[in-house]
Design goal:
Largest sheet: 8 strands, mixed
Helix content: 25-40%
Number of strands: 8
Strand order of the largest sheet: 1-2-4-3-5-6-7-8
Order of helices and strands: EEEHHEHEHEHHHHHEHEH
Length: 250
């Protein structure tokens, strides 16, 4: 693990796996998660590194081993995209691939929409649907309710699962609330202009962020792959890394 300091001084942890001589694959994790949880723990990173990819996996600010400042001024709109833009410049990436899960996929789309990075050769949007990009406000409000709750939600509810995942990963709620408020949606017309070859992959029971199939239809150069599981479980299954690796091989 190395550390990278963003322009505002926030320190991000950057995890790596694989041979640095291989083609870089920059992977962005989901909300309340981390590179270790999303990509390493369940074998996806090892699967992709074994297929000849050099993985670069940062922890977003307020997540994982990165700093979690509570100053709202350090979370301007699109802050996560700004952080990754600075990291890409620092690493001098130009010929690389880019992927993300859930919040990570949302950040990938913001990076493409902003157009301030060298164009990635291939893009992976995982655990994301069309509505999660074009109108993600309701989803953000859901997570803000979870963060701000003073008592535990009833077992079996979506709120309880999110609350438990947040506790499991030692999330600083005040900091992550700023991350959520900094999120911007991307209009469908902008999505229709994003031309990189793209894999849209999600669990067959995952509709947390809308329809992945609908997202693949809007993107001009996208393929849709469905794997077993829902939003929380699909990323834990071997099918996830296998499907990503197979698509990247062609």
């Amino acid at each position: 693990m190395r550390h990278f300091k963003t322009p505002d001084g926030t320190r991000l942890a950057v995890h790596e796996m694989g041979d640095a001589k291989d083609r870089p694959l920059l992977l962005l994790h989901g909300l309340f998660s981390s590179a270790a949880m999303n990509w390493v723990k369940f074998g996806t990173a090892a699967e992709l590194a074994g297929r000849g990819h050099y993985l670069i996996m940062p922890d977003f600010r307020a997540h994982g081993d990165s700093d979690a400042p509570e100053d709202a001024g350090l979370y301007p709109p699109d802050v996560l995209a700004s952080d990754i833009e600075a990291l890409i410049e620092h690493l001098e990436l130009s010929d690389y691939d880019l992927g993300g899960y859930s919040l990570g996929a949302r950040t990938v789309v913001r990076l493409l929409a902003r157009g301030r990075i060298p164009a990635p050769g291939r893009v992976i949007l995982a655990g994301m649907g069309l509505a999660g990009l074009t109108s993600g406000g309701a989803r953000g409000e859901f997570f803000l309710r979870v963060i701000e709750a003073t008592e535990r939600f009833p077992a079996g509810t979506a709120e309880h699962a999110a609350q438990a995942f947040m506790r499991q990963n030692n999330i600083n709620g005040a900091a992550v609330a700023h991350v959520l408020r900094a999120q911007l949606s991307t209009p469908e017309a902008v999505l229709a202009g994003l031309t990189p070859r793209t894999l849209v992959i999600a669990g067959a029971e995952d509709f947390d962020n809308g329809s992945a199939a609908d997202l693949a239809t809007v993107l001009p150069n996208a393929s849709h792959v469905s794997i077993p599981g829902n939003h929380m479980s699909a990323v834990t299954k071997p099918d996830f890394g296998t499907a990503m690796g197979a698509w990247l091989a062609h």
